[in-house]
Structure formats: structure tokens, C-alpha cells
Specification:
With 334 residues, this protein is of the alpha+beta class. It contains nine helices and nine strands. The longest helix has 31 residues, at 255-285.
Length: 334
């Protein structure tokens, strides 16, 4: 029992170190591995796969993966150690990943700007990974599942749409559509014209105002009119100050400009929604393949971080060359 308790402590220490070096998308895989070991199930094929990936990392020291979602790939086996009728037996089966699959939900609501940026970064990293790793994995049996899918996956069209639509900060680009560019150019023009016209009005009517400032109320440009002169001006009161001494006043001559600006802002949002729906349609066409990509990246990310710990936790197996034990050959891996 003491030995078993010690093993759990060591395992927890390894898991803690892995969590510190891992990105959030491969932590699900780490939890799965941890729970399998805790439940006394042995991972097979994992060592070989990890070793080959370790060799790949040695050849590609600058290789890294940085995505923003999580998933699992069905590449590893487990063995269950059982004692039946006082006899030790062992059987092998696939890990059941179906219960842990990541899904890109087909709902417009998930395609907010933050989600799109995360997804865009994920797609960029996958395409970069594909260039770096596909030729290296062709000779690997254990990683052939990764390689076959990476070779067959092509999201260049989706990447082009995303790259043309959003920037790294999540701003919908003017170039996303010609209509959006046209709308934004007119908005920019009005945002220059309206303040200039109001400044002229302010200079001519300064004695009626509490300030020369131009501000916005109810998404409309207004000036700060002294409340006692309201009846001397033609226009609309959008709001009052807390003391009620100042009226946020929209002069009649500026109303058509504000109306046009309000309409343009509404048209801009409609166009952005159309762009997001277009992106959504392209993503949903590739949902199955994208889910597989996320799983692959999760495992590769896990393996990469797993071997960041190789200086801390190593294991060597010894093998005697002859019965006299005069010479011992030691092979050290990872």
C-alpha cells in the first residue's frame, strides 16, 4: 500500500508539471491518461508513439503547436489487468474516445469575434503543422493515422475566407466584402463632416451653450445647450445633465446627417452578420474533418509537452548479455 501511495504521489507530480507546460486544449487528454493509470489500466502503443514524436522534436527543435480548442484522437490502446478464477489475465481494447469528443456546435452564437479569432489561430497553426510534419511522419507506423489525415485535409479555402474577413485582433476587415468597404467609407466621411458642421454652429452660438464640446447621446452627435435657451433653438433634446442645467441638443440641420449615420451603422452590422454566416457555412461544411483535426492537434500537443518533461523523469531498462553478468548493455530512451 505504501508503494502504491508513493506511485500516486509521483504520478501526481508528473501531472502537475505537465499541466504547467500544457496548453488548455490538450489537458483533456492528460486527464484521460492520468485516470487510466490511476485505475490500473496500462497504456500500450503510447510509449512507441511518444518515442517517435520525441525523435521528430529532436530534428525540429522549433516545432510548436498553439491552438485554442481541445479534443482527443483515437490512437492509443489500454490493457485491463484482471484476476479471474485466481488466474491473471489481460485483454486489450481501444480507449473509448467517443464520450470525450470535442464538437464545433452548429450555432451562429458561437461565432462571436473572440471565437472566430481562436478558430482562425487554430486553423493557421494546423496548416503550419501540416507543412512541418507531413513528410516526417510518412515512415512512421505508429503515427500513420496522423499523417494520413493530415495529408488528406485541406482547409485553404476556409483559411482564405477567414484571413480576408478578420484580423488577429478580431476586427472585421473592410475588405471582407465590397459592400462593407463602401458602408465604412461613408461612415468615416460622415464622422468627419458632422463635427465640422457642429463646430461652425458652436462658434456662431457660443453664448447659448454651456461648453464648446461635441458629444454623443443615443448614438447621435449633440451639443451642450444651456437649458434656459432651449426655446431659442430649433432641434431635438436627446437628454439632460444630472443637474438639468444642460440639454444635450441636436440642431435641426444636423438631424439628416445623424439619421444617415444611424442607418449606415445598422447596415454595417447587418453586413457583418452576413459575413459571419458565410464563415459559419464554410465551417459547418467541414465539421467532421475539423473535429478530427482538433483531436490530432490535441494528441500532438500532449506529446510535445510530455517530452518537455524528459529531463525530469527518465527511465532506463537493463538487459544482461550473458549469464555471467560480466557485461551489461543499457539502452536509455527519452
Amino acid at each position: 500500500m505504501k508503494n502504491r501511495l508513493f506511485e500516486f504521489k509521483e504520478l501526481t507530480k508528473i501531472k502537475t508539471k505537465l499541466e504547467a507546460t500544457s496548453n488548455k486544449y490538450c489537458l483533456t487528454f492528460l486527464d484521460l491518461i492520468y485516470n487510466l493509470i490511476i485505475n490500473e489500466k496500462i497504456l500500450i502503443n503510447f510509449k512507441d508513439t511518444a518515442w517517435e514524436f520525441y525523435l521528430f522534436l529532436k530534428e525540429n527543435p522549433n516545432f510548436s503547436i498553439n491552438i485554442n480548442e481541445a479534443g482527443i484522437f483515437n490512437n492509443f490502446f489500454i490493457t485491463n489487468n484482471l484476476i479471474e478464477n485466481n488466474n491473471y489475465c489481460e485483454y486489450t481494447k481501444y480507449i473509448d474516445f467517443n464520450r470525450l469528443e470535442f464538437y464545433i456546435k452548429p450555432k451562429y452564437s458561437i461565432f462571436g469575434i473572440d471565437s472566430l479569432v481562436n478558430f482562425f489561430n487554430f486553423l493557421k497553426d494546423f496548416l503550419d503543422l501540416k507543412k512541418k510534419i507531413k513528410s516526417k511522419l510518412e515512415k512512421s507506423n505508429n503515427l500513420s493515422n496522423f499523417n494520413n489525415f493530415i495529408r488528406s485535409s485541406d482547409f485553404n479555402e476556409l483559411y482564405y475566407i477567414l484571413d480576408n474577413s478578420i484580423d488577429v485582433k478580431g476586427y472585421i476587415k473592410d475588405t471582407a466584402t465590397s459592400k462593407l468597404k463602401e458602408i465604412r467609407n461613408e461612415i468615416k466621411n460622415l464622422n468627419n463632416i458632422i463635427p465640422l458642421k457642429l463646430k461652425e454652429f458652436i462658434e456662431e452660438n457660443q453664448k447659448y451653450l454651456t461648453s464648446k464640446d461635441i458629444t454623443i447621446r443615443n448614438n447621435r452627435y449633440v451639443i451642450l445647450l444651456n437649458n434656459q435657451y432651449i426655446n431659442l433653438m430649433e432641434g431635438i433634446i436627446q437628454d439632460y445633465s444630472s443637474t438639468h442645467k444642460t440639454a444635450f441638443f441636436e440642431p435641426n440641420f444636423i438631424i439628416p446627417y445623424n439619421n444617415r449615420l444611424t442607418l449606415l451603422n445598422s447596415l454595417e452590422q447587418e453586413e457583418i452578420q452576413k459575413i459571419l454566416i458565410t464563415v459559419y457555412d464554410y465551417i459547418t461544411k467541414n465539421l467532421n474533418n475539423l473535429n478530427k483535426v482538433v483531436k490530432i492537434i490535441s494528441v500532438l500537443s500532449f506529446l510535445e509537452n510530455y517530452y518537455k518533461l524528459s529531463p525530469f523523469f527518465t527511465k532506463c531498462n537493463t538487459k544482461c548479455n550473458n549469464e555471467s553478468n560480466k557485461s551489461i548493455e543499457i539502452e536509455i530512451k527519452s
